[in-house]
Amino acid sequence: MESRYLINLVNFKPQFFKAQSNVSVWHKVPVKRRSAVMVLLFLGKEGELRVILTKRSRKLKNFSGHISLPGGKADHGLESEFQCARREMEEEIGISRHNSLLRNKYGFVLDELKTLPSYLARTFLAVTPCIGFINWNENTQHHERILRDLVLNPGESASIFSVPLRDFLQPPSEIFHPKECLKQSHIKTKWGGLPWNLRSFVFPQLNHNEVPWLEDVEDLSSESEDETHEDQEFDVRTRNCWGLTANILHDVAEIIYNGKKSVIGEEDLIWSLLNHGQLQSSGRTEFELRLSNNTKGCLFSEVLPDDEIKRLKVLYKNP
Fold it and tell me: Ranges for the Nudix hydrolase domain (predicted)?
């Protein structure tokens, strides 16, 4: 059972901004700039750790049709990262935020294992990954471990599926061979003049290892919304998990399987931007809009001092 590797996550000590705080920068930015996603893990049919992913509805303004983790913006200043992620998960895919209801209906509770440092989304939100684990009651038989009657919110999610967490290790591990990922890529690029990771993981749409209770959830995608692609190399339709979601899951896999201890997320960049007039409670600044749209020549050095740019380049130079 791969659940034994979760001890690495429990022992992981997050490094927040400037390594000077035990609190994430998430609590420093305005509420309108806070977002949280749920990395919901469970054990698959062969004892492997799997993570639940969704395809975002075409009705959404940002990143419609993309593969993502359940999540969204904070509602108010007193809402914690896990409260935000669990509320959004309930709204998007129907898994209750309340453990008492989960225990009574399904026979499990959602263990809140860890919150990771925040990542900077290209929409200039501080995104905190919250890692949860579906912990079944030991008296619940294996064939009874089913999440019945899951219903997607058509305004939020078009489909739901799961993949093995180990498949996000990069490069692939000699010990933990990919189970379902058909191909992956990693490009060390730049965004706004700072080092940035662009990762991609391609999975087959038709997956014989999928758990039945996810296969039974109605796919709300219309043919015009279909984001899968016929992959000429493998002659199957595929889903591509890339961008921020791919980076988060890569880091989670590194922590759990390899005990990764290096810097993850972009806490220092978020803190620096906040202290230099960006990430304010009102709408996005002119600079943020230009960088979000990948305007040519737009650089973080426009709003951050040279010594801070140099420090951030050193901090983020490694994958």
Answer: 32-187
Query: Are 20 and 268 within 8 A, CB to CB?
Result: no
Asked if pLDDT for residue 223 goes beyond 50, the answer is no
Residue 225 lies in a domain: no
Spatial separation of the C-alpha atoms in residues 23 and 29, rounded to whole Å: 12
Residue 226 has pLDDT above 50, yes or no: no
Q: Is residue 90 included in any domain, yes or no? A: yes
Strands 108-115 and 71-73: unpaired
Specify the residue for token string 């990430």: 279
For 111-162, the pLDDT digits (tens) are: 999 999 999 999 999 999 999 999 998 877 776 788 877 888 877 777 899 9
Answer yes or no: are the C-beta atoms of 190 and 312 closer than 8 Å. no
Q: How many domains does the chain have?
A: 1
Range of the domain at 190: 3-218+247-316
- In this predicted structure, the answer to whether residue 73 has a pLDDT above a threshold of 50 is yes
Kindly report the CATH number assigned to the domain that includes residue 48: 3.90.79.10
Instruction: Report d(CA 28, CA 117) in Å as an integer.
Output: 13
